[in-house]
Amino acid sequence: MRKLLIITLFLSSVLVQAFAQDADSLKLVARTLILNDCPKEAALVYEKILVQDTASYESYAYLGNYNFLLGEKAVDKEYARFQVISEPNRMQLAQHMDELKRLYHLYYEKSELYLQKAIRLNGNEHLEKLIIRIQVFKAKVGLVAVTVKKKKNE
Fold this sequence. Notes:
The chain is mostly helical. The chain contains six helices and no strands. α1 runs antiparallel to α2, α3 (39-52) packs across α4 (57-83) and α4 (57-83) runs antiparallel to α5 (90-121). The protein is flat and about 55 Å long.
């Protein structure tokens, strides 16, 4: 417990110093936080970097991935909660869908924006796949209409 407190105090002081530094120094701090298993703190630093450098691919990619993973964790938890209901009624189903929509807006919406900006700066197949997964989720929960392309002969 004491070790955790010392690490937290150290990281807090690093963050305070980091917010006064340039984008390159902040990137180093963010990478160090990631290596020390402090993803939330790293996300805060990457957000600060974007204030100084709006073309930071690394920041957009990290924040897109970070928010996507938070969304995945929250959605998995919601699915697990809903699956224990053996025969859900319409109200329970509606509440489940509302919760999934809320989670989209809380995590995936931010993730999608960050990922799109990262891809514009530097195309990346992994990030493009995450966007596709977000768009599929968005359609699944009814936030966008699904269009089906017809063949020309039909």
